[in-house]
Amino acid sequence: MEYKVYLKKMKRSGEWGDHLTLQAAADRFGAKICLLTSFRDTCLIEIVPRDLTPTRELWLSFWCEVHYNSLYATDDLLTRKTKKKHWLF
Questions:
Q1: What does the pLDDT average to over 19-40?
Q2: CB of 26 within 8 A of CB of 48?
Q3: Which structural domain, as residue segments, surrounds residue 36?
């Protein structure tokens, strides 16, 4: 498809990303993107910025042409503060 049509399509909410969008993200944010996949032959794919040395790393899982998920260490989990509830009754 034409590049302009592709960009218009990818701009829509709910549109799925692909390898091209991951490469663009790596280039834009200077990040190495590591994909753990469900494929036997290519269980780890690394996408690096073309013109930069990566300054950060992002880990994703990729399940058999179906879905991406973010991965992070348990130490990196956000802590949630319990909000105080104000009951009116």
A1: 91
A2: yes
A3: 17-70
Question: Is residue 77 assigned to a domain?
Answer: no
Asked if the structure places residue 8 within a domain, the reply is no
Domain count, the chain: 1
86: which residues sit within 8 A by CB, 6+ positions away?
none
pLDDT tens digits along 41-88: 889 999 999 998 999 999 998 887 777 888 877 676 666 666 666 555
Region label for 6, one of left (φ > 0), alpha (ψ between -120 and 50) or beta (otherwise): alpha
Residue 24 domain-assigned (yes or no): yes
* DSSP letter string, 34-70: EEEES-STTSEEEE--SSS--SEEEEEEEETTTEEEE
Which pLDDT value is given to residue 24? 92
Q: pTM for the full model?
A: 0.69
Residue 87 counted as domain residue: no
